[in-house]
Amino acid sequence: MLTRKANMQDYPQLRQIYLNSRRGSFHWANIEEMTLDDFDRDTVEEEIFVAEENGDILGFTALYVPNRFIHHLFVDPAHAGKGAGDLLLKRAVDELGTPVTLKCVSENKHALSFYKKRGWKAVIEEGEPGAKYWVMVYE
Which intervals hold domain N-acetyltransferase (predicted)? Predict the structure, then answer.
């Protein structure tokens, strides 16, 4: 498995991973409102890296470099548990340097556990009721 910078040929697969992942794990959101176009809108001005194995994209991370911020990290549900998330997280930290931050929706217990097990600290919970998230930092 390797990581590399995404290219435009990857976008159809990245759009599908983003949609499938959110529909499968964002139980608090209205999945009927999610579309393939969300990926393009939600990654404007971000650097995107993919985890790839045998020509298949397993997941991606989208980084907002000026703020050392990981905006997205998604792994295709069909490839969960294979190490792609770890590899992408390491690549993001390597690209951004430390300290690096991200936001994790408070309802996303699986993701919160994933980050905490890898040394991330939940600093402060922000947002409105029903839309709360943790600001997390890795130093």
Answer: 1-139
Number of neighbouring beta carbons within 10 Å of residue 116: 14
Question: For residue 128, what pLDDT is reported?
Answer: 86
Largest separation between any pair of C-alpha atoms in the chain: 43
The segments of the chain whose pLDDT lies below 70 read 26-28, 31, 130
> Which residues does 92 contact at the CB level (< 8 Å), separation at least 6?
49, 61, 63, 70, 73, 100
Residue 68 and residue 96 in contact, taking contact as beta carbons nearer than 8 Å: yes
Domains of the chain in start order, with CATH, are 2-138 (3.40.630.30)
Per-residue confidence (pLDDT) for residue 27, from 0 to 100: 62
Structure tokens at 20: 């499938």
Question: Is the Cα torsion angle 16, 8, 38, 71 positive or negative in sign?
Answer: positive
pTM of the prediction? Answer: 0.91
62 close to 71: Cβ distance less than 8 angstroms: yes
Residue bearing tokens 């997941």: 59
Three-state SS for 17? helix
